[in-house]
Specification:
This protein has 163 residues and is of the alpha+beta class. It has five helices and seven strands, in the order ββααααββαβββ. The strands form two sheets. The chain has a five-stranded mixed sheet, with helices on one face. Strand 1 and strand 2 (16-20) form a beta hairpin.
C-alpha cells in the first residue's frame, strides 16, 4: 500500500491483515525493502514477483478451485484463528478426521483427560466466550460430541475420554 504499510488478503475468505510499521525511527527500512530482502532468494531469470502482476499465472489458475470459497471456508478459517486459545486453554492434542459414513462434514476430535476439555466446554469457548466465532452455534449429540455450525457449514466436535 505504501512504504510503511502492507495489506495481506486471505483469498478464500477475503479476510485482511494490515501490517503497519509504527516505528518512528528515521532508520526504519520501508516494507518494500524488507519484503524484497525476505523474498529475493526465489528470484529466477524470467520469473516475476507475485505482487507485480494483477492476474494469476497459468500454473496458479490451474489451482484456483483449491482456494475457491466453499460453505465450510469461513468456519474452518474461524477455527484456525482460534486454535491457540483452544489448544492452550485446554492443553489438548487435536486431530482432524474426514466425514464419517453418512455425514458430509468432518470431525475435530481430541483426548480428554479429566473432563477439562469436554465437548461442551470447547463449544462454549467457540460460541459464547470473548473469543467466540460470531454467529456459530452448537448442537449436542451426546455427552462428548456435538455439531458446531456456522451458516451452512458444520464440524463435529468430539472429546474422547482417555483411559
Amino acid at each position: 500500500m505504501n512504504g510503511r504499510r502492507v495489506r495481506l488478503v486471505h483469498l478464500p475468505t477475503g479476510g485482511r491483515l494490515d501490517l503497519i510499521d509504527s516505528s518512528s525511527s528515521g532508520r526504519t527500512r520501508h516494507m518494500k525493502t524488507v519484503f524484497s530482502y525476505e523474498t529475493s532468494w526465489h528470484d529466477e531469470p524470467g520469473s516475476q514477483r507475485l505482487w507485480t502482476t494483477g492476474v494469476l499465472s497459468p500454473r496458479e489458475a490451474l489451482c484456483a478451485e483449491l482456494w475457491a470459497p466453499r460453505p465450510c471456508t469461513v468456519l474452518r478459517s474461524a477455527l484456525l484463528m482460534r486454535s491457540m486459545p483452544l489448544w492452550y486453554k485446554f492443553d489438548i492434542q487435536r486431530a482432524w478426521r474426514q466425514p464419517r459414513p453418512g455425514e458430509s462434514f468432518p470431525t475435530l476430535f481430541w483426548e480428554n483427560d479429566v473432563d477439562e476439555a469436554d465437548a461442551a466446554k470447547v463449544a462454549w469457548l467457540l460460541t459464547e466466550s470473548p473469543v467466540k466465532i460470531p454467529g456459530a452455534t452448537y448442537e449436542t449429540d451426546g455427552p462428548e460430541t456435538g455439531r458446531l455450525r456456522l451458516g451452512d457449514a458444520q464440524v463435529r466436535l468430539t472429546s474422547q475420554i482417555s483411559a
